[in-house]
Amino acid sequence: EQVRRAMDFVGARSAVLAVLRGARAGDRTRLLHWMRTTNDFDEFILSNNDVVLRSIAEDLRNCLPIEAMLNSENLAIQKILEQPKPTVHVDAFLYEDDIIDSLCEKGKMSRNYCVVCGSHKIAPLEFISHSFSLMELKFLYQYALPDLTGKILVDVGSRLGAVLFGGYLYSSASQLYGVEMSADFCQLQEMIITKYQFTDRVKVLHSDICTQASLLQNADVVVMNNVFEYFLDRLEQARAWEFISHNMRKKGSLLVTVPSLEESISNLKTDILLSQWVEEMKLDYDVYMEKDIDREALEQIHLYKIL
Ligand SMILES: C[S@@+](CC[C@H](N)C(=O)[O-])C[C@H]1O[C@@H](n2cnc3c(N)ncnc32)[C@H](O)[C@@H]1O
């Protein structure tokens, strides 16, 4: 079956290339431009689940300020101000590129900052997202993780619930638990869970992960997307990582992190010996072929198996 499908792909690709080779030079340029920019392929790419996730993102956008941060998140706001390059919060789950473009046109958002005020010298702003984008979620559930039928997944720091809702729609995990220390974000997640009737498989706990030992002990998959770095000071980060490593011990269970574990704990004083705790499972970042892929973002996603 796999060989047959591979042949189909190779055959189809040759056919597409033959059409391009057959076109006159001028038309070929136009054809390529159309292929790169058109929405005519959406029907092959967009599934109903994507539409549901986009609708959730729209509901959440309507409840949050444009930077999707809460006033209570002092530490995270402070850390952004301390970045070497001018940086803004843009939540990748809430704001896909086309939405950012239209907000930029309306002057509500900017991708650039003015280097010399009043001149045309501008430089790109750094964007920081506190959620996975739709593309990253699909990479996670459709390519990176194995079949999750009957499995328990825990998202540490579930924030807007992107990982939980993505898991509900794109995986067969039997339970998806989010643990989030911010009460306001827990409320937003609850609102979506109720509205979209995810209650049978999604649960959100308003809690510090360092009080959830048994949840971590029983999890088959734990997701940690930039959880601690922007939200805890270094001592708290070290303690939280130690808590995770002491409690995530089930052999064969999977840990997804952004950035890599090495990078996450490299500047912290911890008792964690990575080589005795986990084995990295190398991910194939090329397998994902939709247009507009942000490969740099995907390459930050790392998968580990607990030894
Ligand atoms: C970058 S967001 C992750 C969002 C989400 N998991 C995703 O991938 O879309 C990190 C979240 O972790 C939460 N957080 C940080 N430390 C935590 C802790 N010790 N316990 C629970 N939540 C925590 C923060 O409040 C923040 O909302």
Structural class: alpha/beta
Strand content: 15-25%
CATH homologous group name of the largest domain: Vaccinia Virus protein VP39
The CATH architecture of the largest domain comes to 3-Layer(aba) Sandwich
- By CATH reckoning, the class of the largest domain would read Alpha Beta
How many helices? The count is: 14
User: Strand count, sense and closure of the main sheet?
Assistant: 7 strands, mixed
Pick out the low-confidence regions: none
CATH fold node name of the largest domain: Rossmann fold
GO molecular function: methyltransferase activity
Protein name: Methyltransferase type 11 domain-containing protein
Organism: Chelydra serpentina (Snapping turtle)
InterPro entries: Arsenite_MeTrfase-like, SAM-dependent_MTases_sf
Structure description:
With 307 residues, this protein is an alpha/beta fold. It is built from 14 helices and 11 strands. It has helices at 2-22, 25-37, 42-45, 48-61, 74-81, 97-105, 134-144, 162-170, 183-195, 213-218, 234-247, 261-265, 274-277, 295-298; strands at residues 87-89, 112-114, 122-124, 126-128, 152-156, 175-180, 202-206, 221-225, 254-258, 278-281, 302-306. The strands form 3 sheets. A 7-stranded mixed sheet has the order 7-6-5-8-9-11-10. The chain has a two-stranded parallel ribbon with strand order 1-4. A two-stranded antiparallel ribbon has the order 2-3. It starts with a helix and ends with a strand. The model has no long low-confidence stretch (mean pLDDT 91). S-adenosylmethionine is lined by residues 93, 130-132, 155, 157-159, 162-163, 179-182, 185, 208-210, 225-228, 231-232, 240.
